[in-house]
Amino acid sequence: MKLIDIGVLSEQSGMSTSTLRYYEDIGLIQSVGRHGLRRQFDAQAATQLALISLGKMAGFSLDDIKEMFAKDGAPQLPRAELHRRADALDAQIRGLTRLRDALHHVADCPAETHMKCPKFKRLMDFAARAKARRQA
Q: Fewest C-beta in 10 Å: which of 7, 60, 79, 122?
């Protein structure tokens, strides 16, 4: 089994060595030995780090991600939760697409002022309602 030095794993993963040490401390990854004072990892650690990055991008907490790894380090992904998060991303994408389209319209609006543009007024009303919902 070829071992990967913490510095090499850091370069490969794009994560700092302090992040790798933290992930080891909280049980997300596990070193398999040391070469002097430097931690050594097996190839599975690189796969786990990629899954951790993906999980973080999907909005999972480190505790959520930790629960997705079995004792042997193999991922056990919660399919229903993945579907729920994918659906939430779809909704966010639709909202951001509408916002982008509205901003393009406002930027190019032929109205005399933005305050005379009906679409801009609707955009402001939407923003006010969205803020009120987040605060509630």
A: 79
* Phi-psi region at 36: left, alpha or beta (left = phi > 0; alpha = psi -120 to 50): left
Paired tokens of 62: 């480190």
User: How many Cβ atoms sit within 10 Å of the Cβ of residue 73?
Assistant: 15
3-state helix, strand, coil in the chain (%, to 5): 65, 10, 25
Architecture of domain 4-67: Orthogonal Bundle (1.10)
3-state SS of 90-114 is HHHHHHHHHHHHHHHHHHHCCCCCH
- pLDDT at site 73: 63
Query: Assign residue 58 a region: left if phi > 0, alpha if psi is -120 to 50, beta otherwise?
Result: alpha
